[in-house]
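This follows on from our talk about sequence and fold. Can you supply me with one protein entry, sequence and fold together? Could you add the entry underneath, on a fresh line?
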Amino acid sequence: MRVIKKAEERRNEILDAADELFGQKGFDGTSTNDILEKVGIARGTLYYHFKSKEDIMDALIERYTVLMLGAAQEIAADKSIPVVERIVRVVMSLNISGGSSKEIMEHIHKPQNALMHQKIQKVIINGVPSILADIICEGIEQGLFSTPYPYECMEMVVIYANTVFDDDMVHMTNEERVSRIQAFVFNVERLLSIESGSLMHMMKIFDSGNGNSHE
């Protein structure tokens, strides 16, 4: 007897199968026939839910985005965490330099998933600055920071961190990475008009996120 599943359940099955196949064979190396065979459905059922393989990838990116941005928003909203620590935690939750999204980021950093990587970078660059800007505004109210451009400052921070600290974009030695982190923190302090050296402890947290130490 043919099993009839709810549309949302079937859609998630297709996404789960595609996610596994993209991880094994890459986006270009996976055919719609591969997905059909893995899920055990007819081509018409697949196209009922998704117009194309590209459409499936976009849905996977949306799934990843919900996980990453959801974690960032949850941290940003936790007023029990000091403002500066919250900023660092938000950055690390997105795995710009490490953090809780490690498995997702390892998956999209595979060479065969370059397009998926590019699309998630776009989501981060467009979605994260506003989350961080809200924390900066809170810091301004507390007298910790001073800038007339909280969103623009965080946009600069996110774009830099999302490219320079991405091993696929910029290849660095450990010494070069340390120097970049020091320069990064130095300039963030100036963007936010705070005393030089007051954010340098961020470097240790970045190092921890990259697996150089254990908490």
Q: What stands out?
A: DSSP finds ten helices and no strands in the chain. Residues 54-209 form a domain with the Tetracycline Repressor; domain 2 fold (CATH 1.10.357.10). Residues 26 and 113 are 6 Å apart (CA to CA).
